[in-house]
């Protein structure tokens, strides 16, 4: 294998690993949707084997087909057979277009389904009881939407560029400035997408939540201080109210004696209790006759005894 063939393979490998990473992300999303849909959706029921087959194709097939086309194009170009070299080169561009476009479409489809499931789960949560769970679901929704958008944008851009080179490669190569601009876009497309995905994964929502919690704690502290000041003011007013103080002092012995009489009467009524454990004992006070009645209630009969 000559030097040009080595260079061709090295050019293809980075994007093949990137496509493999996006396929693994699709693998995770699709299986999550499949497992969740057993309870929420019925259309994804029992298709785990199909998901495994599709994701395995996207992970392995680009390494086989694209490298074969790349090596074959380089070999025929070195031999001077430019017609066959052009055929394999066009096939390489169209394969990249198909892989990226199909993978982006599948990520969009699976991501939208997963967002829908999580949104339904979020709507069923109670904010007063499951505030921590709601925060986790919202954080997951944010990360899924961000990673899905970054992946789809990167794949569609790369697919569009490869399709352009497959259709009008000669014209683009003759325009030196446009060719360099497009080459810069497809070179850094995957790098920028990877950086944004890593930043999205590493985002810590607790750092943002701590700011809001500190501000809300400050608000609660101020409110507590205001309520405490109002309570002290009301207590001072209550303390200075001579009428209320005198009334309480005057009626306190009467209330005390009445409570002691009630306790004595309850102690007397205790001796009327039945030894039957199913008997319910009540001691209502008859205001008209000024007597206390002990009511013995059993499952079979009712008996009233007056003392």
UniProtKB/TrEMBL annotation:
Keywords: Membrane, Transmembrane, Transmembrane helix. The chain crosses the membrane at residues 15-33, 53-76, 96-115, 146-168, 180-203. This is Uncharacterized protein. It comes from Mucor ambiguus. The lineage of its organism: Eukaryota, Fungi, Fungi incertae sedis, Mucoromycota, Mucoromycotina.
């Amino acid at each position: 294998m000559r030097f040009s063939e080595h260079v061709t393979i090295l050019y293809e490998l980075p994007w093949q690993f990137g496509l493999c990473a996006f396929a693994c992300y699709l693998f995770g999303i699709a299986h999550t949707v499949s497992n969740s849909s057993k309870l929420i959706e019925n259309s994804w029921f029992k298709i785990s084997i199909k998901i495994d087959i599709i994701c395995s194709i996207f992970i392995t097939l680009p390494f086989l087909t694209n490298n074969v086309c790349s090596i074959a194009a380089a070999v025929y170009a070195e031999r001077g057979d430019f017609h066959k070299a052009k055929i394999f080169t066009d096939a390489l561009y169209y394969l990249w277009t198909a892989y990226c476009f199909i993978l982006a479409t599948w990520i969009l489809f699976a991501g939208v389904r997963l967002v829908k499931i999580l949104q339904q789960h979020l709507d069923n949560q109670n904010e007063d009881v499951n505030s921590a769970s709601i925060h986790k679901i919202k954080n997951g929704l944010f990360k899924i939407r961000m990673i899905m958008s970054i992946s789809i944008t990167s794949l569609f851009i790369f697919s569009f560029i490869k399709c352009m080179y497959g259709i009008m490669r000669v014209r683009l190569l003759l325009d030196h400035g446009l060719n360099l601009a497009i080459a810069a876009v497809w070179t850094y497309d995957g790098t920028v997408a990877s950086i944004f995905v890593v930043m999205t994964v590493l985002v810590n929502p607790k750092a943002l939540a701590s700011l809001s919690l500190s501000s809300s704690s400050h608000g609660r502290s101020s409110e507590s201080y205001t309520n405490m000041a109002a309570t002290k003011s009301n207590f001072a007013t209550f303390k200075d109210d001579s009428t209320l103080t005198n009334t309480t002092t005057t009626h306190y012995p009467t209330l005390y004696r009445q409570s002691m009489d009630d306790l004595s009467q309850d102690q007397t009524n205790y001796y009327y209790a039945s030894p039957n454990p199913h008997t319910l004992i009540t001691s209502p006070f008859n205001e008209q006759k000024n007597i206390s009645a002990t009511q013995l209630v059993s499952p079979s009969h009712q008996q009233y005894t007056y003392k």
